[in-house]
Amino acid sequence: MDKPSAESVLQHNRRYIPGGISSVNRAIDPAITFLKAEGAYLWDTEGKRYIDYHAGFAPYFLGHNFKTVNMAAAAALNTGESLFGAGPSVSEGRLAELICENVPAVDKITLMNTGSEATSLAIRIGRAITGRQHIIVMQGGYNGNHDELATNVFNTPAEIGPRVSPGEYPLRPLGAGTTLTHNRFTHAVNYNDLESVRYVCRRYPVAALITEPLLQNIGVVKPKPGYLEGLRDLADEFGFLLVFDEVKTGFRHAVGGYSEISGVRPDLVVYGKAVANGFPLAVVGGKAEYMDSIIDPDPARRPFVAGTYNGHPVAVAAAIETVRYLVATKDSLYPRMEKMGAAMEAGILDIFARKGIKACVARQGSAFSFYLMEKPPADLHDIVEGHDFAKDVALRRALIQRGVFFVPIATKQCSLSAAHSDADVQFTLEQFESAVAEVW
Ligand SMILES: Cc1ncc(COP(=O)(O)O)c(C=O)c1O
To answer: What pLDDT is stored for residue 152 in this prediction?
Structure first.
């Protein structure tokens, strides 16, 4: 069979799909079409192999097409289980038990398909519980594609203006066509800034604050010591629900995500991505008293939850096998990922230092980002003011030429998987050195 070129695939698709791609975030320059993925590797239409650090925006913590996860999904297709559309399923109960028994932050969960659906439900539960409307989001955080949350992720220096503290930022929706009513209720504050949360809480009745515990959609931006604890205290003081969006951090940094690592317990938590190693499944979970609002006998206090595909047997089977595997191997797996991440970090820093280039690496376990600036950022301002975006993208493109796939979008976080080997890291660092030499 003829292998199509990346350009011809794009041209074909553009006739039927605006832009040729079903998620705008997948548009990249140079155009590449991948045909196959296995473990830590991707292959494009020319048969060229890449070591993958994008991991499909991070779900593939165990690597692409992880055998036992795929087998579990395939088995679900062959057992006669189906989307019955009525009554509870045995498998959703098994997955829920597995997660609740192994994740400290959750007493009860419910299953959905995408992170966006799940964050939307978390907000709805927050409103139902508190009877309030206002929500707080982070400048520089991403929590999904729906109107209320798709705002204020990556703003240009002109848009973001000077640091606002204490205070809130003007809302900047990620695109056109969103309702404006949510502008009255969504408040964007700077990350790592407790005073701004307090500022909003003093002015508005806040139902929920949603944040990635560390921001991983503008690279890797970690909480300052005491920040997450401070959010917990403010939630208790002002009576809003603290929602951790662990779509990217859950199951990747620990089975119990970053809330387990930090020891800060949110009221609600959302998981996606790594929980099913690439199959479409998301989880909303948290304290039983809040989750049980879903079955409140009073319809006026009961948030609506429904979804034809919620608890789909194929994704659930994949998630059961993924979580089972992570729980069984966690004592060796997470330390190994930390070691590999540390080797990558040290190698990159060494290359930049030997070239005399101002740079740093921000990292949590297997997730890392390099920034061309003095020290890791504490918020989006640090990045837009200090980072060299053009050089960042040029370096990524030079790496892609060399068979190392860092998605060519400035600051995008890289993900190691359990399928990466020390030799892959070594090869990556050699190519990194050569790419740096080309770009500088
Ligand atoms: C932190 C975070 N929350 C929510 C989402 C939305 O998840 P999904 O794309 O599955 O709707 C994403 C997606 O990248 C994410 O990174």
So the answer is: 85
Separation CA 197–CA 205 (nearest Å): 12
- The answer to whether the CB of 250 is under 6 A from ligand 1 is no
Distance 125 CA to ligand 1 centre (A): 18
Residue labelled with tokens 């519980």: 129
Q: Using CB atoms within 10 A of its CB, is residue 236 exposed (0-12), middle (13-18) or buried (19+)?
A: exposed
* Element (DSSP H or E) covering residue 342: helix 313-355
Query: Rounded CA gap, 426 and 59, in Å?
Result: 23
Domains of the chain: 6-65+330-439 (3.90.1150.10), 67-325 (3.40.640.10)
What's the distance, CA 407 to chain centroid? 15
How far does residue 142's CA lie from ligand 1's centre (Å)? 7
pLDDT in tens, 364-373: 999 999 999 9
Q: Which of 247, 279, 407 to mutate to test the pocket of ligand 1 (most atoms within 8 A of CB)?
A: 247
pTM of the predicted model as reported, rounded to 2 decimal places: 0.97
